[in-house]
Amino acid sequence: MSESTKRLANRYGQTPQNAARSKIFGWVAAGGFAVILGAWLWWGAVLETPSQLQYRDVAHTIVSETNVVVNYEVTTAPGTPITCAVQALNASYGIVGWLIVDIQPSDRWTRVFETPLRTSEPAVTGLLYECWLT
User: Fold this and answer.
1) 34 and 59 part of one domain
2) Cβ pair 123, 64 in contact under 8 A
């Protein structure tokens, strides 16, 4: 390497020592990232208990201008208490009926429920809004 090339390399940090230092820093950073990613995946997969709750609408029946019956299915682990919110909507998608239903634990995984719901004005649909573990 010529003298002018060495001076330029020293000036702009292109020496063999700096290149080796950059490689070491890169490997340490990659290793640290791998350790953090591995710990995060382990924490999320092994330590967290997966929530085993599934729910879906089955049907609804408009009984009268002030009553709707909502049928829905809930699947959860036996012995797990849950709570569900049931709603009725009008033609403008406004909520005209709302009810929170506490579902007691059972020894079965999947159960079907029928919940009557009073409305403040005529509804066009009734549905299950959400369920959560309690």
Assistant:
1) no
2) no
pLDDT tens for 51-98 read 689 999 999 999 999 999 999 999 998 989 999 999 999 999 999 999
Confidence of residue 117 (pLDDT cuts 50, 70, 90): very high
Structurally, the chain folds into a number of domains equal to: 2
The residue segments making up the domain with residue 16 are 3-47
Name the residue with tokens 């009008």: 90
CA dist., res. 105 & res. 54, Å (int): 15
Structure tokens given for 92:
């403008």
Q: Domain of 122: which CATH number? A: 2.60.40
Q: Are 133 and 50 in contact (CB under 8 A)?
A: no
Tokens 């009984």 belong to 63
Summarize pLDDT for 36-56 with one digit per residue, the tens: 998 888 877 776 666 689 999
Determine how β-strand 110-118 pairs with β-strand 53-64.
Answer: unpaired
Residue 7 is classified by DSSP as: H
